[in-house]
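User: Can you predict the 3D structure of Sodium channel regulatory subunit beta-3? Sequence below.
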Amino acid sequence: GGGGLLSPLTPPLFAARVCGGACVEVDSDTEAVVGDGFQLGCIYCKMRGEVRAKASGSGFRPPRNRPPLFQIYRYQNQRGEIMDPRFEDRLAWNGSKGTDDLQDGSIYILNVTYNDTGTYTCYFTRTLTYNYYEVQANNTKTVQLNVVSRRMASILSEVMMYVSIVGLQFWLLVEMIYCYRKIAAAGEEALRETIASESKDNCAASVPVPE
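Assistant: Sure. Here are the predicted structure tokens for Sodium channel regulatory subunit beta-3:
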């Protein structure tokens, strides 16, 4: 087994899901609403599913005026432990359950506060077991969490909705113009072919037939 982890460092990005035995890494949500819950997504997929492995994960974040690698959460031997009293009763394990082959290391924050803003880093330490040897595989993921008010979240949601509507209307307009030009070009081509055909017929009719 090993250790895994979450905290402020660098920006952007990961969360994930393990669906029906298939492991897929996707970007984590990065915006939480104050007073609501929020999932810090963190996943580290095995490259080969058939290889036996053992891993553990824990989360940490450097709070203000604390050492830079102060842990907030640790998960080991299928048990989670809150390490930072500021998060007491506010963190819940939401990752892989009932297995030492840990791939999803997500944790859930209850009742998000503005002080939860920051960059969380998740660390994985995985031991891959082959027939005659073992390999240690480590990885880190980071999530930049931004906490906004419910009103701000509502405003941002409306703005995104209007942007989507305007974008869709613009796309439809471009498609309509493209289709109109295509139809117009096809009509002009058909008209030219008709004129050329009639011209040939007229020429053939005007040629005198020798007696």
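Confidence is low (pLDDT under 50) at residues 1-20. Residues 150-204 form one domain.
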